[in-house]
Amino acid sequence: MDDDQLKKHFEEIIALTNDEYEYIRSHFKRRIIKRKRYLLQAGDKVTNTFWVKKGLLVACYHDESGKEHVVQFAMENWWITDYPAYFSQGNATLSIESIEDCEVYALSFDDREKICKEFHKVEYFFRKKANSGYAALQRRMLSFLSDDIKGRYELLLKQYPALLQRVPKSIVASYLGVSRETLSRLH
After folding, report:
1. Domain holding 136: CATH number?
2. Residue 96 lies in a domain
3. Which distant-in-sequence residues (6+ apart) come within 8 Å of 145 by Cβ?
4. CA–CA distance, 32 with 39 (Å, rounded to integer)
5. What are the Cα distances from residue 73, in Å, to 64, 101, 124?
6. Per residue in 127-163, pLDDT tens?
7. Could you list the residue range(s) of the whole structural domain that residue 22 is in?
C-alpha cells in the first residue's frame, strides 16, 4: 500500500506496531474497480469483505419483479460485502456496484479469521465496526417504521452529508424507498 490510510483506519480503534500492521496488511488484496462495474453480483460465492480506500460503492437487492432496492453505501474508510453470505461462505443475495472509480482492499474470510485469532485487538476492531454497523442499520430500520420520507431524508442528510453530494438522486430515492419524483418534491 502506498500510504498508511488502512493503518490509520485500524488505529482509530486499536494501536498497532509497524510489524503487526505489515503482517495484517499482507492479508489484504488490492483491487481497482472502474465506475459502473460490479465488485460482487447476486449469486456469486462471497469470500471477501472489502475496505474502501477510494471511491463509492452501492449494495443493492433486486426483488422478484426486478425492482432495485439500495441496501447500503460504502465510501472511503467504510467496509462492504454481503455479510450473511460472507459469514456463511455462501452465495450473494446482494450486488455491489461502483458509483465512482474505486480502490478497495479485499480481506478473505479465512484471513480475517486467522488474524483475529492471532491478534485479539484485531478481533476487537472488527467487533467495534460490526457494532457500529448494527446500530446504523437499526436507526435506518426505525426511521423506515416511524418517519415519513422527509424524516428519512433528513436523517440521511444529517448522518452522511458528504455522501449525498456524490450519489445520483435516483439511487438516493431507492435507498429511501421512494420514487425519484417524490424525492425531488422534498427540495
Report:
1. 2.60.120.10
2. yes
3. none
4. 9
5. 22, 14, 23
6. 999 999 899 889 888 888 898 888 888 888 888 888 8
7. 5-180
